[in-house]
Amino acid sequence: MGIFHSVLDEQIKKYLDNNYLIDEKLRGLLLEISQTYEKISDREEKEVSEQSLLQKLQFNEARYRQIVECTTDLIYGCDAEGYLIYANPVACQRFGYTEEEIRQLHFTDVVALEHREMVRDFYKRQFEERIIDTYLEFKCLTRDGKTAWIGNNVHLQLNAEHNWVVGFQGVARDMTEAKQAEETLIQARRMAEESVKAKEHFLSVMSHEIRTPLNAVIGLSHLLLDENPLPNQVEHLQAIKHSADSLMIIINDILDFSKIESGKVSFENVDFKLDDIFRGIEKSLAYKARESNLRLLIETDPRLPATVVGDPLRLNQIILNLVSNAIKFTEKGFVEVKAQMVSQKKDTITIEFKITDTGIGIPANKLSTIFESFTQASHETTRKYGGTGLGLTITKRLVELKGGTIQVKSKIGLGSTFTVLLTFEKSHLTAPVIPVPSGNTIEASTESLDNLQVLLVEDNRMNQLVVKKFMEKWGVRMDIAENGIEAIEKLRENTFSLVLMDLQMPQMDGYKAARYIRYNMDYPYRNIPIVALTASAMVDVRRKVMDAGMNDFITKPFDPRDLYLKILKFSMKGSQSDESPIFTPSVLPGNNGYVNLQYLEEISANNQEFITDMIRLFLRQMPQFVQKLKKACENANWMDLRYITHKMKSSLSTIGIFELESVIRQLETYAAQESHLIEVVQLCNHVERVCEEVYTELKEKLNEKNLKLIK
Question: Which positions bear 4-aspartylphosphate (predicted)?
Answer without folding.
Answer: 502
